[in-house]
Amino acid sequence: MKARRLRSLLPLPAQWAPCLIVAAVALPWAAALQAAETPANALLVLEKAQDTLVIVDPESLQIVARVPAGNDPHEVAVSDDGRTAYISNYGGGPSGYNTISVVDLVAQKPLPPIDLGALRAPHGLEFLSGKLYFTAEAAKVAGRYDPTTQKIDWVIGTGQNRTHMVVVAKDLKTVFTSNVSSATISAIEQMPPQAGRGPGPGGPPPGGPPPGGRGPGGPPPGGRGPGGRGAPDWNITNIPVGHGSEGFDLTPDGKELWVANAQDHTISIIDVAAKKVVDTIPSTGNANRLKVTLDGKYVFVSDMTSNELLVINAATRKEFTRIALAGHSEGLLMRPDGKRAYTTLNERDSVAVIDLSTMTAIDEVKTGRGPDGLAWAARR
Predict the structure, then answer these.
(1) Strand bridging mode 141-146 / 151-157
(2) Which residue among 11, 57, 276, 321 is least packed, with the fewest CB closer than 10 Å?
(3) Average pLDDT over residues 297-321
């Protein structure tokens, strides 16, 4: 019927009518694709139960794309230029997965994943100064991947159980990991430069072996090459904290590390220079993630068993407020402009948007099943 109407209205050959119908249907679809380009600033959300990465326009709060994220995606980090996302494929336990998925955020397509070999159950991720830092829980290690050479150029063992999340100091001289089942934080600190020692995570000397890694003929992690030369030495200080230590964050000045202890319902505050806990304060029922605001004034703690987000005054170390949510919170993210925070509401399949000026939840982004890890992509 539609084809006959087209023939009666247009002086075209009858055989062209089906093509016109297809074109009429395709035009809105093509326009929708054009309108769904990745914005220069994008909110990234992992749909853990659907193995996908969601790209969200943070202004309209609309989902612009979904991209396959590999098996059991848990955490996501973004390259310095905001164009590439890295996603840990966890799996948990000794038989966990051993890949980090890679996504081109501009083209909105998956790229070949990073094969970690024997380093299984990758989880925590942080991208800093051109390198991707990660943990591999089943191998009890922290490591680093260089996207330029496409090689793992640094690996070091913590000797702790469930080495889970990772935070890197801005000067690249200290890598921190939370070790959930050992109730510790590992401070992996580069020793001061001495004769015969190379640089730290900033990069190996030209032509030399990777720092702490197993390059061809290179020393074992944390060791030295023949005659005491080669890779630098590292000091690992395992700092006792509370049970179930998982989410943690550095204050912007790098002086304190705040750790959420889910099983003890406490927060440990570590003096970074002294490498010891200097205070322990009450937390929430099942703290999952902890983030410090960019101005260092407040500490946010998510809770997997409560519809409230705990906010602590960092100076007084006292509860400042609790933000009412529509569900239990998990992943946490501070927006780089300091205006918003985001937390995933796993049971509601959504992400809550929090106004940091009023400390209230002002909106939600509906996602697919099991939203968890969050990241911000600012394209350069």
Answers:
(1) antiparallel
(2) 11
(3) 97
